[in-house]
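can u do me a favor
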């Protein structure tokens, strides 16, 4: 737990208010995913929507009806949706043959990041706001969450308050753990408001919050985490799979923590930066998603699929930041890349986003 400095209440402060609200979405009808985490030699992936097979890459998610072609002297490892590891030898396979369907643990999140965009604020404007970083639009497991927020220039004293649990503390830092005696309740959403001593407020960004995951789902996640950590994997491989696990249950704060640690360690894996950008978008933080996406795009040079996905992500970033021209340029680049792949479904989705942007202009 962080140490904090109590200050005179007459000093202007930075106030973090958390209000009990409604639960986030349930986890009904999950979409299973299987994750490539190691590729040796020449491995091709064929999805129904592609004209031609594409090279496999670390972090690529697979559906049951996708196919793998593993050339001679090559191999690929896949973390199946039930967290079992499938070591694929040379040959041609349907993904469902090595990762049978069942109750998925690795899954897509329910949230739609299209609805969590900032409302057209520039990075310069957002930098002046005390927006919450984590936990933000997120489930959490701990009942002692660590709050992190954007440092506002000129603000040095911070007050953190959770309404309804009779807890209030003050700190000079931009992060602090909840240390109240009253336990936070599972299944209840706590909304967060931040006010800075320069008069700015997080409500100018968005009203966001978090929910403590129910006990049964916590057990599912923690059991899966234990299984992943016991596998003979590198720290980066474990981190990538854990981040996917957390994202699937909308444990975005936990996923961000894992990925940021890998970034700090100097990872050069495209999937780490791309996934971090994706999750920042999931939580409505396009201003933080931009740099990871840009790093991922540099690392993805020559990989058409990765370029298409990241270009689309950057388009959503600039849309969220109110730069419609830049957004459309990136989305058109993504359309061109998906066109080379022959992925008409992605092109249609990008056209929908572009039309929505142009209608606002």
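np, heres the sequence
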């Amino acid at each position: 737990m962080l140490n904090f400095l109590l200050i005179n209440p007459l000093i202007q402060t930075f106030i973090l208010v958390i209000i009990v609200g409604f639960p986030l979405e349930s986890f009904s009808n999950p979409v299973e995913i299987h994750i490539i985490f190691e590729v040796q030699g020449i491995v091709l992936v064929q999805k129904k929507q592609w004209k031609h097979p594409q090279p496999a890459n670390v972090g690529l998610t697979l559906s049951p009806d996708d196919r793998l072609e593993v050339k001679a002297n090559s191999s690929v490892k896949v973390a199946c949706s039930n967290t079992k590891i499938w070591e694929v030898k040379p040959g041609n396979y349907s993904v469902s043959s090595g990762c049978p369907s069942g109750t998925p643990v690795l899954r897509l999140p329910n949230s739609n990041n299209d609805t969590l965009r900032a409302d057209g604020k520039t990075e310069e404007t957002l930098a002046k706001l005390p927006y919450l970083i984590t936990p933000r639009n997120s489930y959490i497991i701990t009942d002692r969450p660590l709050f992190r927020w954007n440092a506002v220039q000129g603000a040095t004293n911070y007050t953190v308050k959770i309404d309804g649990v009779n807890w209030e503390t003050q700190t000079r830092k931009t992060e602090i753990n909840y240390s109240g005696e009253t336990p936070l309740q599972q299944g209840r959403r706590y909304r967060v408001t931040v006010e800075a001593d320069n008069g700015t407020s997080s409500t100018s960004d968005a009203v966001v919050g978090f929910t403590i995951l129910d006990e049964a789902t916590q057990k599912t996640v923690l059991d899966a985490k234990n299984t992943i950590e016991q596998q003979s994997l590198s720290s980066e491989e474990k981190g990538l799979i854990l981040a996917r696990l957390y994202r699937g249950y909308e444990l975005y704060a936990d996923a961000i923590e894992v990925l940021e640690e890998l970034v700090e360690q100097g990872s050069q894996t495209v999937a780490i930066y791309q996934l971090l950008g994706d999750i920042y978008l999931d939580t409505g933080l396009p201003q933080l998603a931009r740099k990871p996406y840009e790093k991922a795009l540099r690392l993805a040079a020559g990989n058409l699929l990765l370029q298409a996905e990241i270009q689309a992500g950057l388009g959503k970033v600039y849309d969220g930041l109110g730069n419609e021209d830049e957004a459309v340029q990136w989305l058109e680049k993504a359309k061109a890349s998906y066109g080379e792949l022959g992925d008409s479904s992605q092109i249609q989705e990008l056209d929908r986003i572009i039309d929505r942007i142009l209608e606002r202009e």
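The chain has three domains: 11-30+113-286, 34-98, 300-361. hope that helps!!
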